[in-house]
């Protein structure tokens, strides 16, 4: 499959990926996305917050762990502004990860809530 972009078109995400690397998209909100400060090409850590112990929704305790470190952000949503020009709160972030880390992200989204922590 040829992932190159045609003349006059932007580069596809696949064309921008180094060999052996995957693009994985995760759900975020204004809090988990660092209030809109995370931008493409930033580097983040990914945290997971989940319930531990107990079986009911209000039982047990919450725990937050570092899931991934030093991850490059490839994209934030597809549009950064609403039709009226006001800033749009991003709902997804596409991250550059290894195949194993892509699996971790997929499982973590089902097990808890992901948060991005901006790195310098």
Can you offer a commentary on this structure?
This protein is 14% helix and 38% strand. The model is unreliable at 1-6 (pLDDT under 50). The relative contact order is 0.29. The chain has a five-stranded antiparallel sheet with strand order 1-4-3-2-5, covered by helices on one side. The chain has helices spanning 13-16, 99-111; strands spanning 22-27, 43-52, 61-76, 92-97, 113-119. With 120 residues, the protein is mainly beta.
Any chance you could write out the topology, listing elements then pairs?
Layout: H1 13-16, E1 22-27, E2 43-52, E3 61-76, E4 92-97, H2 99-111, E5 113-119
Antiparallel strand pairs: 1-4, 2-3, 2-5, 3-4
